[in-house]
């Protein structure tokens, strides 16, 4: 990841500001060409109107004014939007911009991705057959491996993003080592299914085969990753997160309070905002600034702080590393990776 000086200064300024939502996930589209076992997005796929390019850019301006530092563009597959290059171009001027791809599009959209700070390619395993089974598409593994190689060769900051589940967890230490040794960072997700009724939209599909049942082994994998962090570059998860995951697995205790609609929120393809995808929408992106400090939002935050309905890794991360102290902790933990942020 390379940052321009003006962007770095803007981010620094926002990182030390209080009571700001620092992280946003924008599901730009529900469209997807894959059929993942763990995902509900494609199952409910029907044509849904999406915001236009201008509307997305107006939304990004709102987020900038609110002090947001980091935008994650996902879906569905956001690379299926024709205008994704324009959106990345705009977002990356002001935010740390990450974009997800299931591995099928990135190699075809290199120019559109050039300005992204980080491109995360979903990849769960080094076992081709297993991956194609998980994705529901023949050739998915090969496409993802090709995408990683193509982007890496083109000098784009690309990483792999495995979703840890019962089916792949024993391989995770070796998988991590494989990519980190080749200069490809690893950004983890954890298999979850959506447990709340009436969410803003469904993502996690219940699947007993994927549900982590061997909790002791999972805790050992967290320990193995902590050990690897001291000698390997590019393990994009903090020690604090790994310890919290271990405690959750072994004792079913949560070492964090959820910071939905405080440190982070999500946006759907129509510009509706919710604390997380499991909660109901509470505003549109354009209404957000006037509602952010309202009594109603304070009441919702109080409800979410007590919520224990999920442990999606991204929400957990933004809760554990919330606010100014959290930003400092990330930098301290990720110092080796942060050294790669060069001012140009
Ligand atoms: S997990 Fe991602 S790639 Fe797979 S079906 Fe869902 S949206 Fe598509
Ligand atoms: S714990 Fe937080 S992120 Fe998870 S469902 Fe509850 S409010 Fe949403």
Query: Largest sheet at a glance?
Result: 8 strands, mixed
Low-pLDDT parts are 339-344
| Termini Cα gap | 11 Å
**How many distinct folded domains?**
1
Helix content: 40-55%
Radius of gyration: 19 Å
H-E string: EHEHEHEHEHHEEHEHHEEEHHHHHE
Structure summarized in a few sentences:
The chain has 344 residues and is α/β, with parallel strands linked by helices. It has helices spanning 5-15, 53-66, 84-94, 110-113, 128-135, 140-153, 172-180, 215-229, 239-251, 288-291, 295-306, 313-320, 323-333, 335-338; strands spanning 2-3, 23-27, 70-74, 96-101, 118-122, 158-161, 163-164, 189-190, 264-267, 272-274, 283-284, 342-343.
What are the main properties of this structure?
about 350 residues, alpha/beta, TIM Barrel, eight-stranded mixed sheet, two-stranded parallel ribbon, 14 helices, about 40% helix, globular, disordered C terminus, binds iron/sulfur cluster
Describe this structure in words.
This protein has 344 residues and is an alpha/beta fold. Helix content is 40%, strand content 12%. It has 14 helices and twelve strands. It has an eight-stranded mixed β-sheet, sandwiched between helices. Strands 1-12 form a two-stranded parallel ribbon. It has a two-stranded parallel sheet with strand order 7-8. α2 (53-66) packs parallel to α3 (84-94), α7 (172-180) runs parallel beside α8 and α8 (215-229) packs antiparallel against α9 (239-251). The structure holds iron/sulfur cluster (SF4) (2 copies). Residues 196, 258, 260, 275-276, 278-279, 304, 307-310, 315 line the site of one iron/sulfur cluster (SF4). The site of one iron/sulfur cluster has 13 residues, from loops.
């Amino acid at each position: 990841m390379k940052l321009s000086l003006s962007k770095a200064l803007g981010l620094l300024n926002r990182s030390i500001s209080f009571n700001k939502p620092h992280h946003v996930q924008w599901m730009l589209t529900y469209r997807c060409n894959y059929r993942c076992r763990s995902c509900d997005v494609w199952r409910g796929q029907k044509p849904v109107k999406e915001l236009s390019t201008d509307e997305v850019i107006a939304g990004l301006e709102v987020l900038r004014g609110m002090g947001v530092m980091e935008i994650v563009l996902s879906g569905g597959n956001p690379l299926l939007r024709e205008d994704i290059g324009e959106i990345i171009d705009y977002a990356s001027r002001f935010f740390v911009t990450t974009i997800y791809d299931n591995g099928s599009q990135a190699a075809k959209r290199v120019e559109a991705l050039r300005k992204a700070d980080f491109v995360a390619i979903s990849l769960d395993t080094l076992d081709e057959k297993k991956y194609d089974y998980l994705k529901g598409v023949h050739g998915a593994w090969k496409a993802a491996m090709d995408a990683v190689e193509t982007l890496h060769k083109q000098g784009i900051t690309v990483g792999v993003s495995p979703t840890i589940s019962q089916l792949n967890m024993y391989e995770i230490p070796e998988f991590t080592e494989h990519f980190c040794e080749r200069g490809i960072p690893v950004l983890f997700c954890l298999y979850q299914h959506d447990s709340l009724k009436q969410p803003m939209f469904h993502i996690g599909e219940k699947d007993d085969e994927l549900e982590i049942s061997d909790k002791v082994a999972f805790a050992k994998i967290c320990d193995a990753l902590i050990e690897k962090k001291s000698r390997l570059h590019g393990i994009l998860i903090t020690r604090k997160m790994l310890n919290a995951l271990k405690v959750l697995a072994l004792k079913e205790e949560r070492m964090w309070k959820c910071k939905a609609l405080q440190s982070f929120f999500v946006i759907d393809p129509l510009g509706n905002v919710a604390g997380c995808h499991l909660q109901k929408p509470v505003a549109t992106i354009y209404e957000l600034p006037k509602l952010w400090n309202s009594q109603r939002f304070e009441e919702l935050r109080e409800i979410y702080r007590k919520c224990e309905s999920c442990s999606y890794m991204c929400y957990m991360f933004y809760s554990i590393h919330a606010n100014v102290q959290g930003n400092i902790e990330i930098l301290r933990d990720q110092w080796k990776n942060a050294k790669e942020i060069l001012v140009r």
